[in-house]
Design goal:
Number of helices: 3
Oligomer: single chain
Largest sheet: 5 strands, antiparallel
Bound molecules: nickel (II) ion
CATH superfamily: Peptide deformylase
Strand content: 25-35%
Number of strands: 7
Shape: globular
Mean pLDDT: 97
CATH architecture: Alpha-Beta Complex
Structural class: alpha+beta
CATH class: Alpha Beta
Length: 170
């Protein structure tokens, strides 16, 4: 497995809409493995292929709220249903280092995807998993969580994230 390089704001590749996966073959399965490894190394709870510069609709998530890891690998994830209820949750993003803000997300969602064996799976989730799925699907559409904030707040977090990435590059 390989730890992949994560793109940071303001990289324009983060705004690209990713292409559907035709089939989860060995190369996509390998990408999923590498993304999961990268996500755990960086202590994230989700990662989209967009964030590693790959223009494919692939995400990995771990919405576990216990000590037990619950890795999920998803190609072509799509929301089938959203709850009426929504909630403000604190979010961060590996592409916007060390910045957090409250984002309004649906509390429960149903979603469909292709797993690492190219099988179609449908699931319903609440809690952290529901939030992470919404955040990662946004990435595949070129949308960062910053896009859900006021312009003022977005600019502030963007500025702070740039300071962090500059100090990381040094
Ligand atoms: Ni993110």
């Amino acid at each position: 497995m390989t730890v992949l390089k994560i793109l940071h704001v303001p990289d324009p590749r983060l705004k690209i809409t990713a292409q559907p996966v035709e089939k989860v073959d060995a190369s996509i399965a390998r990408l999923m493995e590498d993304m999961l490894e990268t996500m755990y190394v960086k202590q994230g709870v989700g990662l989209a292929a967009t964030q590693v510069g790959v223009n494919q609709r692939v995400i990995v998530v771990d919405g576990s709220e216990t000590d037990k890891p619950e890795p999920l690998k998803l190609a072509n994830p799509e929301l089938l249903w959203r709850s009426q209820e929504s909630k403000d949750v604190s979010e961060g993003c590996l592409s916007v280092p060390e910045q957090y803000a409250e984002v309004n997300r649906f509390t429960r969602v149903k979603f469909r995807y292709l797993d690492e064996h190219n099988q179609t799976v449908e699931r319903e989730a609440g809690g952290l998993l529901a939030h992470v799925i919404q955040h990662e699907i946004d990435h595949l559409n070129g949308i960062l969580f910053l896009e859900h904030l006021s312009a003022l707040k977005r600019q502030m977090l963007l500025r702070r994230a740039l300071k962090v990435t500059k100090s990381m590059a040094r």
